[in-house]
């Protein structure tokens, strides 16, 4: 789908060409930082899959890819996210390895901080965070990404891997704001 044929009620916030240019810049920086080393990229699903795909294709260092699926479960509490389960595509063997956690959108930072601490506890040599979008205004923990594409404040974004509550619009090549008032966690 090209930018001129966007779905109704979406306003383009970051066009596809700008996203691709920034992803290549981030990949160049990461490649420089990890020159001569193998990088273990771990994408947070679902929002991080498209960013991860484009990012690893642009890296100039050896890279392995793995996926992490957080699942939030309400457990006798009053709100979502009371209990967090994390699923790896397979148990990571990262002892002594350099890990890059990849997210599409860094929001509260709670999940990322938890994962980064867990990966360090598993013996990773280093753990860094790359996110395409950084919504610093929503941060609930002291966490800053090591690599980021764009600062955003829009209430709800779709496209380039980010989906609506109905899980649609992830396939858009651009990022768009929608008038839906659905919070992202």
Proportion of helical residues: 10-25%
CATH topology: Rossmann fold
How far apart are the termini?
27 Å
**Number of distinct beta strands:** 9
Q: Helix and strand succession?
A: EHEHEEEHEEEE
Instruction: State which percent range the strand residues make up.
Output: 25-35%
CATH second-level architecture: 3-Layer(aba) Sandwich
Question: Can you describe what's shown?
Answer:
This protein is α/β, with parallel strands linked by helices. The chain has one domain: Rossmann fold (3-Layer(aba) Sandwich), CATH 3.40.50.2020. The chain is built from three helices and nine strands. It has helices spanning 16-33, 49-58, 110-121, and strands at 10-14, 39-44, 63-73, 83-88, 98-106, 126-134, 147-151, 157-158, 175-178. The strands form two sheets. It has a six-stranded mixed sheet, sandwiched between helices. The chain has a three-stranded antiparallel sheet with strand order 1-9-8, with helices on one face.
